[in-house]
Amino acid sequence: MAGHQARKRFGQHFLVDDAVVESIVRAIAPRPDDAMVEIGPGLSALTRPLLQALPRLTVVEIDRDLAARLQREYPPDRLHIVLGDALAVDFSALGAGLRIVGNLPYNISSPLLFHLTQFADVVLDQHFMLQKEVVDRMVAAPGSGDYGRLSVMLQSRYAMYKLFDVPPEAFDPPPRVQSSVVRMKPLGPERPQPSSQAAFETVVAKAFAQRRKMLRRALGDWTQSLDWDALGIPATARAEELSVAQFIALADRLCADGVLRG
Q1: Ligand-binding site membership of 13 (annotated)
Q2: Which residues cross the membrane (predicted)?
Q3: I need a labelling partner for 48 at 20 to 30 A (CA). Which of 66, 133, 147, 260 fits?
């Protein structure tokens, strides 16, 4: 790794398999006019081929040593470096029509995915390498064991596609888990939207906090006056059986009944 020691606190696993890099870049299909942002460029495995297709690239890097290395390797008119934690970055300040890519640190993947949802209106698409288990949860369908809070919250905002798996030996140091690449495309304003995003998030979180229980028990006093038939939800249903649209309808009903505040 040319003298750089991977740092556990940053969750660093550097992609070193050229064939995997080529597959990821092919999936991204960068165009010269793209406003591309890479999270965690590391040792430039993706940065280098992206810059072969782009006149300019923005990267977000938390590791000062790696940022300095990038600064030495690429001129500032080609590579704009944002030094800092991606969890604290205001991506809307980087422009509109963003295409965001990255081999995301597994230790912050879920918080980072939730952080990025607030900028979905300025994003065209996202391509990420993540832990396979996380990607399986992201794209899971209702009724499956992988379907949970992450599935519902992200599927309410994105259309998502698992592209391919990546073995541990594609990285240095190799992680102890399989990885996968996922494509995320923000849904437009015509998508089903809750009357209160806060209420929707609260209902989904509470429902999956006790996912083995039937919803009417998991949600407790909230559901005493609910007309389950009108909602099209069986009273015996569990959280993992509800679609995104049904969760939205449930949250909207609780708001309309005054059980939850919008």
Answers
A1: yes
A2: none
A3: 133
